[in-house]
């Protein structure tokens, strides 16, 4: 803590300094002999408190306070004066002085007055530090919430109540129209996510998903003041400006069509994924509505192959099979010869096998044991190979899912007071966030946020039985950062507020 004594009488300054050094030995003290010098020293010393004499030659204390306060509004002032008149006191208080000391004063009065203001400064510092920590925690929480909202909207079924509560927490408000941009980035550029987030934050209209497997989905809310294409192109160019000319070849942005609600957002995401399938275009972004349809079957086949990675990771084997069979039909319609078609389909099967290997599933590479005689036979043999890979996939996950679900449940129950995201759970058990979300929902009938909320509310119920604990303390201890939000969640889950629940609980105990 730093203090500045301002007085034109040296003996007064020295006397005050001696008193304060004895009373507050850790206080750093500087002196100024007039108002002008006080302003100069303040700029260098940056005091927390100024003891200011009023009557000084040149610039009086009230004038000095006015100028210092204009530059440094957080500095506190105590007036030191022999003029105990209403006008002086009123002027000093109007300028922000906390108190005044009359000359001469008892040592105990000086100590009490200065001590009171120093304590106030200390309390403000603690409050500011606590507020800053809570603000940083809330900002981190909101980022996790935002990522989870996007992941669940695009890949999982979300309970309506929890979507509503999550959406309320996120800084960027939703609107009636939205679309998805799928940003394809080169794998290994660690700084990419935060840089893209900065660009999305600048436009104040988007929710960022998780960067996974080189792809980043972003839900963008329509700006009614500009056209859809203008809004999307402007943001796409901003994002692409992150990459230098050498990296740009690996970047591409697909843009889905506008939809009318969050329930329809998956359709826009699928469109954005298809639009980003072919990265070898001169312009590094493309709208789904600009993708050629019907004229280039071989290209359409490539779009289907694009979806394999995600479908295998999610265990959507019926869709995998449908896409591969559609590939075969596309080659047949195009008039491609059977041998070449079989080779291209085998390449597609190898891409599926490669994804399985990447996620740790041991299975033999698919091989046709003979050259098929017609397209019908190619479809039959291909279906058989896909069925074999599916069986290996299911066997692998039967072995790990039960243990994984137990691990995740245990981790959530033991750490429910912390901010737990799908990414946190992903690192914990070594599976993709999307797969964890899907598995949790399928095995337990609820998504992980519902389970986490239930754990927190159960803990809160027990704590509410202790009348010594305040609602704010319980809010923080169970993992929420804001009592009003905690009360809202509690009421939605229990149909009563925490205070009403406590009153009932304590009444029953009584």
Automatic annotation (TrEMBL):
<dbReference type="InterPro" id="IPR020449">
    <property type="entry name" value="Tscrpt_reg_AraC-type_HTH"/>
</dbReference>
<protein>
    <submittedName>
        <fullName>DNA-binding response regulator</fullName>
    </submittedName>
</protein>
<feature type="modified residue" description="4-aspartylphosphate">
    <location>
        <position position="53"/>
    </location>
</feature>
<dbReference type="GO" id="GO:0000160">
    <property type="term" value="P:phosphorelay signal transduction system"/>
</dbReference>
<feature type="domain" description="HTH araC/xylS-type">
    <location>
        <begin position="406"/>
        <end position="504"/>
    </location>
</feature>
<dbReference type="InterPro" id="IPR041522">
    <property type="entry name" value="CdaR_GGDEF"/>
</dbReference>
<keyword id="KW-0597">Phosphoprotein</keyword>
<keyword id="KW-0805">Transcription regulation</keyword>
<dbReference type="GO" id="GO:0003700">
    <property type="term" value="F:DNA-binding transcription factor activity"/>
</dbReference>
<dbReference type="Pfam" id="PF17853">
    <property type="entry name" value="GGDEF_2"/>
</dbReference>
<dbReference type="InterPro" id="IPR009057">
    <property type="entry name" value="Homeodomain-like_sf"/>
</dbReference>
<dbReference type="Pfam" id="PF00072">
    <property type="entry name" value="Response_reg"/>
</dbReference>
<feature type="domain" description="Response regulatory">
    <location>
        <begin position="2"/>
        <end position="118"/>
    </location>
</feature>
<dbReference type="InterPro" id="IPR018060">
    <property type="entry name" value="HTH_AraC"/>
</dbReference>
<dbReference type="InterPro" id="IPR001789">
    <property type="entry name" value="Sig_transdc_resp-reg_receiver"/>
</dbReference>
<dbReference type="Pfam" id="PF12833">
    <property type="entry name" value="HTH_18"/>
</dbReference>
<keyword id="KW-0804">Transcription</keyword>
<dbReference type="GO" id="GO:0043565">
    <property type="term" value="F:sequence-specific DNA binding"/>
</dbReference>
<dbReference type="InterPro" id="IPR011006">
    <property type="entry name" value="CheY-like_superfamily"/>
</dbReference>
<keyword id="KW-0238">DNA-binding</keyword>
